[in-house]
Amino acid sequence: MNDDIIIISDLHKYFGQIEAVKGVDLNVRRGEVIIIVGPSGSGKSTVLRCINHLELPTSGSVTIDNVNLEDKDTNLNAVRAEVGMVFQQFNLFAHLTVLENVSIAQKLVRKRTQAEANEISMVQLERVGIPEKADAFPIQLSGGQQQRVAIARALAMNPKIMLFDEPTSALDPEMIKEVLDVMLDLAKGGMTMVVVTHEMGFAKAAADRVVFMDEGQVIEIDEPEVIFSKPQHDRTKLFLSKILQH
Amino acid sequence: MTGPEIQAQPDESWSSSWREFPWWLVAIFGFLGIMAILVITQPNYREAFNFIVRGIGVTLYTTFVAFGLALILGLLAGLGRISSNTALRNIATTYVEFIRGIPTLVLIFTVAFVIVPPVSEGLGIDNRFISPNTRAIISLAVIYGAFLAEIFRAGIESISKGQMEAARSLGMTYGQSMRHIILPQAIRNISPALGNDFIAMLKDSSLVSVLAVRDITQQARLFAGSTFRFRESYLVLAFLYLTMTVGLSLLLRWYENRIGKNQR
Question: What ipTM score was computed for the predicted complex, to two decimals?
Answer without folding.
Answer: 0.92
